[in-house]
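Preliminary data (for renewal application), zinc ion complex.
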Amino acid sequence: MNIKRLLYFPAVLFINFTFAQPIIVLDAGHTPEAAGALGAKGIYEVEYNDRFVAELKPQLEAIGYKVILTRNPEQNISLQQRARIANQLNADLFLSIHHDSTREKYLVQTTVDNLPAQRTIEPFRGFSAYVSNKNGSPFSSYCFAENLTKQILPLGRAPALYHTDPIKGENRPLLNKEYGIYRYDNLVVLRSTQVPAVLLEIGVIPDEEDEAWVSNSQNRHNMQQAIVRAVANYQDNCIKPYSID
Ligand SMILES: [Zn+2]
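Predicted structure:
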């Protein structure tokens, strides 16, 4: 090593340290083979998730984040693989994007253009966020969820509170009713991630009104910008030890 290189070495280290890019792992829930909930227009959840994530990615890159997707739309991967990607990168954040449904007894089967579809028989609307106390960073996860939902509420969007219903498959404890934050310890992508992780349900796709809301590109953009604001102020608000018990 010549002397010139030695002189440059600390400078390079300093630059790398100063400008280390924060990483967010974005996870579009489900796969083409296991496509999730069926919506009022006969479109499966995975397509809504893929579209939302594809639109969100450049908006997070615009605030300086390195954005890693767990899967591309054509890819089938396991839940454990998604968590592993975030852990191996030691990402700053993991965000899983989903679209919600409700229980079968509140759904009727229909068709749209000869394709199967389903719709709700009464309103089931709104967003919800999930965190797990088995996650490696429960405080930061909850704090990120709170940041997210605080940004979403001013859009005029209400939290979906029906997952508290005391029956099998629901019965999720609400950590914060105002913000629609649930605790769901055994969700694999949340419990297997060491890094702060939140699962966000954007809307309820068998509900015709909510499906129309999430299908509107301006609404989606507003929701995505709310997420961007939450990610942008996450570092300032959420880095300290905490338990969500
Ligand atoms: Zn889902």
